[in-house]
Specification:
Two copies of one chain form a homodimer. By secondary structure, chain A is of the alpha+beta class. Chain A folds into three domains: about 110 residues, DNA Polymerase III, subunit A, domain 2 (DNA Polymerase III, Chain A, domain 2, Roll); about 120 residues, DNA Polymerase III, subunit A, domain 2 (DNA Polymerase III, Chain A, domain 2); about 110 residues, DNA Polymerase III, Chain A, domain 2, CATH 3.10.150. Chain A has six helices and 26 strands. In chain A, strand 20 and strand 21 form a beta hairpin. Chain A is elongated, with a radius of gyration of 25 Å. At the A-B interface, helix 2, strand 9, helix 5 and strand 21 of A face helix 2, strand 9, helix 5 and strand 21 of B. Strand 21 of chain A pairs antiparallel with strand 9 of chain B. Chains A, B: GO terms for molecular function: 3'-5' exonuclease activity; DNA binding; DNA-directed DNA polymerase activity.
Chain lengths: ~375, ~375
């Protein structure tokens, strides 16, 4: 293989695929970057078997060939190269030379035949969505994905198409985040569960503008096509929680509050709550005031926020983090908090629209 | 105690003194911030017994008093307060209330009488220096302070006044960094050794502009006065290495090279050197070229840099980090490397001036 490529293009490609590279693996080849130059162009691939990323790069191929390079070292070397064109040559014994200006690095490649194939996903059932929209949907749900493995299905997010709406749902047993978007074109109904880690990496590959992405799925895998890049993620097996049955349909108390004020107050209260180990913040709702309190051996915090309220007074308590998490990702200035009783979930909604919804369980207080 | 203070002023004060706060101590009071409001104004103090910082803040004192507050929690609470004036009150039982807009925090203070006194340092022997100059002197030597404790005196930097020159020297047995400045006024000759950690914190308190600082020392302590802040550091006991005897006076090979090129090449070579564990980079100097090579099981790196040279050809090897460390802190575009033999130290100097000098030992190669 002999090829010439701009340093910046190569760095972009490495940064793209490296997200799927295994960090520590018993198979050294999974800690590598697969490089193949042939009639289709130059492609890089990384995979940790759960997630695979393939990208095509612009370059000048003088002689075809393929190899797997030790990923971390290759990436670091390329990032530190002088600015200019990079020449990469590989001989028949997989000896690789990377040359750029006065810098020349030689390293031993690994056998490309030992690199696992990525799963094939046909485009029989696909839909299209704008990059910033998908990025936003991921950002507003991923934080609620379960981090412990006791119920493996909850370590993923549900992606559901029903009646031309795309819904993403994540929940961990204590809170649930839901984000909905209308699709621009009719699409086959489906329910798939994408592992949180894979979804998070997909989110990082998406631009705030840029072309639409195509998403296609089969039984076991989903493929997301972003320009010259394909991300293939293994799906989680099993049935997701029937989330519609959990969502409360009614409320006895509605609070309208400035999201920023609420965040700042809970953030302060949680400093003291943290000292008390349980991270508990109490809400007292009455007379158009929300009073937040927390305490521990170290002392106590009292916070008063003006609100607009409808319905009954209420005293209820929450794990502070479940509130700060959601307030960080909501873009709305004013939000609604809907309560039923002090032992049933609170629903956090934007005042306008129904694209986002968040449900959080209270902590029982005596 | 009752006082009113601007949040930003209080945060500035906390940030200043917190650098001397003990992180984990058997004496809880050392993890605290001492606060005293009296006729002298409001002062904050932290000390870990080795380093002490005291600062005076502008505020409105309604009633005098003093207390020690749990430092980390107090600092976090103040940083997160709403923008505005902060009211702090302390009752006779050391119950502290911090109030700002709708936020009110209560906590229990510690007995201020248990807080250790800072050492007194008289201004009998003092000198004055501009903040940016002292900041620069610290930055250009501190990295060479020894990090292991086998020779405790080397964990500090020497500060020497001789013939109206202030010299700062740090060395760790493998390399030595020296920075010199002429003092604007005659000052008593002295040699003190300031612990690296204390010197580093002093460096962080200095501005790139701003008033001159006053430095005074006695047998056991040095005091640095920066505006309203006093830093008092315990000195290291013992005699520093006679560094003048180490500095080579002659050279057989002189290399003039662009600092940025040399840094980039060593940086790349060190990626491979790192894989080889010993971090070794070989220098080959001949024909107005500097060739750098490194190798490991993973492969090898070859770097070629144009230089101007005088004297003999040379092959010599170094620990890559000892070169990248110094190249990071030199501001000169072009530097001189002076060599004698491949088993004697290399001296790195700016082409212009003699304010800075760096000596590094080679690694023997066979």
């Amino acid at each position: 293989m002999i090829l010439h490529i701009e340093k910046e293009e190569l760095i972009f490609g490495i940064n793209t695929v490296q997200r799927a590279m295994a960090v520590k693996s018993t198979l050294p080849v999974l800690e590598g970057i697969y490089i193949c130059a042939d009639a289709k162009g130059l492609q890089l691939i990384c995979t940790d078997l759960s997630l695979g990323i393939q990208t095509f790069l612009a370059c000048d191929i003088e002689e075809e060939g393929k190899v797997v390079l030790p990923g971390r070292l290759f990436a670091e070397i390329v990032r530190k190269l002088p600015d200019g064109d990079v020449d990469i040559t590989i001989d028949d014994n997989l000896n690789v030379t990377i040359q750029c200006m006065g810098s020349r690095t030689k390293m031993k490649g690994l056998d490309p035949e030992t690199f696992p194939d990525l799963a094939e996903v046909s485009d029989a059932s696909s839909f299209t969505i704008a990059q910033p929209v998908l990025k936003d949907m991921i950002r507003q749900t991923i934080f609620a994905v379960a981090t412990d493995e006791t119920r493996p299905i909850l370590t993923g997010a549900l992606l559901e198409i029903q009646q031309n709406n795309l819904t993403m749902v994540a929940l961990d047993g204590y809170r649930l985040a839901l984000r909905k978007e209308a699709l621009s074109a009719p699409s086959e109904e489906k329910q798939i569960v994408i592992p949180g880690k894979s979804l998070s990496e997909i989110g990082k590959l998406l631009d705030d503008d840029g072309d639409d992405v195509h998403i296609m799925s089969q039984d076991t895998h989903v493929m997301v096509e972003i320009k010259n890049t394909r991300v293939i993620a293994r799906l989680l097996d099993g049935e997701f929680i029937k989330y519609r049955q959990i969502m409360p349909t009614d409320h006895h108390t509605r609070v309208q509050v400035a999201a920023r004020d609420l965040f700042d107050s809970i953030d302060r209260a949680s400093l003291m709550a943290r000292e008390g180990k349980n991270n508990l913040v109490r809400f007292q709702i009455s007379e158009n005031k929300l009073i937040l309190t927390s305490n521990s051996e170290m002392g106590d915090v009292y916070e008063e926020i003006p609100i607009a309220m409808e319905g009954q007074d209420l005293e209820i308590a929450f794990n502070a983090r479940y509130f700060t998490d959601v307030l960080k990702i909501m873009d709305d200035e004013t939000i609604n908090l809907d309560f039923t009783t002090n032992i049933s979930p609170c629903v956090v909604n934007p005042v306008e629209g129904d694209k986002f919804s968040y449900l959080v369980l209270p902590v029982r207080i005596y």
